[in-house]
Each structure stands twice: as C-alpha cells, then as structure tokens.
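Hey, resending since the last one bounced:
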Amino acid sequence: MANVATNRVGDRTLAAAVAILSYATIIGFTDNYVRVIAADAGLWQFHATRSVMALAILAALAVPFGLRLKPVRWRPVLARSLIHGCAMLIYFGCLAFLPVAEVAAGLFTAPIFVLLISRFAFGHPVGPFRIAAVAIGFLGVIFVLGPAAGEKVGAATVLPVAAGALYALGNIATKEWCAGESAETLLAGFFAILGLFGLIGMALLALWPVAVPAGAEGFVLRGWAPFTGPFLFWTFVQAAGSLLGVGLMIHAYQIADAGRVAIFEYVILPASALWSYLIWDEVISLRAGLGMALIFLAGLIIVLRRR
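The structure tokens again:
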C-alpha cells in the first residue's frame, strides 16, 4: 500500500511538472509579443481590450464547465485583485522596453518579498537559511537588473522588482483573505480590475493628453488608438494564453505539493529566454544568466525550508 501511495504522489508531481512546463511555455511565448502590441497601441488600451476578451471567454466557459465566478466575499477579492492588478500593470509596462526573461526575473523575486512581509508584517520567524536566501536573491537581482558600470539606477532596475513585491503581497492576500474563493473567481476579479485600470488610464489620457513617442517607447503614455489587425490578434492570444496558462498553474497547485510546484514554476525564466532567442534572436548576457540562477537558488532555499 505504501508503494501505491508513493507512486500516486510521484504521478501527481510529474503531472504538475508537465502542467507548469506548459504554463511557462505559453506565457513565455505570449509575453514576448507584448512589444508588437506596444508598437500599435498603449498599455491602457491593451489591458481594457484583453480583459474584455478574457472575461468573455470565462463567461462562455462558465455554464458548460460549471465555473463559479461570483465571489463568496467581495472585499477580499477586490483587495487582492487591486494588488495583483498593480503588479501586472508594472510587469506589462516593462515588457515594452526590457527582455521578457529580465522582467520575469524581477517578478520572481516574489518569494523573497513573501518572506520579508511574513516576517515584519505577521511576525513569522525567519532562520539563517532564509536570511541567506534573501541575500542571494538580492545579489541575483543586481546581476540581472542592476545598472552597468557608470550607469545610474533607473526605472529598468526598480520597476520589475516593485512588480515582484506587489505580486508577493497579492500571493499573501490569496492565502490569508481568499481561502474560500474558487480559482475562476480570482481570475475573473483579476481581469476585471485590469480592465477598469485600462479604462481609467485611457480616460485620463484623453482629458490630459501628453506627447507620445512613436512605437513601443510610447506604450505607457499612449491612450486610445485605432485598432489594428496585429493588435487585436496578439491581444486575443494574450487573453487566451493567460487563461490557459494560469489555469494550468492553478491545476498544478491543486494536484501536487505546493513546495514542489513552486520550484517547477521557475522554469519560466529559461523558457522566456529561449522564446526571446527563437523569436527575436536575443541572447541574455552571462551576468543576467548568473543572476537568474541566483534568484532560482534563493527561491529553492525558501521553498525547501518552508516544507
């Protein structure tokens, strides 16, 4: 009987690994095309359009798959959606001018911030191994996103890490505030708030227009723009890919030990780098590669010590 139970655990872990690998492959591919979207439209129009598409897909799937989209408690879901929505605003804004792998590295500092928030906000004890993990992860961030010699610290350094901090806070909110909510409810709330952010951003830019650089450089400052074929196509790919990818990730956490799944999730870093190379012929530097390895090591230490 013990061997049967062990085999079942191994099978679920393998299935979770396949799900996470599929998630990383999908997200790494779709996020690499944000720069194409950024050439034709703005961040705010992108989020508004993508949210409409994603919510329409969710609504179409709700009845045949029995999805529960209505929250049990509105306020915790709203608060969590606001936090994660802000994280994704920063993340997608950075994708317009930074390689996907580097932005993802900033986002994957989240376990480090989860540790710090848990310690200083909730008083959870932190041992020497986890303190070492924070130091290693911080060093990795400097390698990946830190300025080169002679350059000043700028938005390219700070913003991806800020996205990671907000993402960590949203992950804590998921566990502390939204334990009784379904995955599809949280997904619907996430897209709804991003769509609202998009509408607010377009409205503000319409009332107070600013000079907008051409192409991807104007992604954050651009308001509404006429729809183009590439924009609609890649935004739909983003919406469908996000739903599918996040669904696979949620499924992985449902069927296997969260500690093991969290380790697998770091595969998105090499997956993003591989897609950047295949699509755009971009090669990460040795320094960035070393930094990603250090961030992965920090996350690994944190996850294993938590287990």
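The first helix runs from residue 2 to 31.

Sorry for the duplicate.
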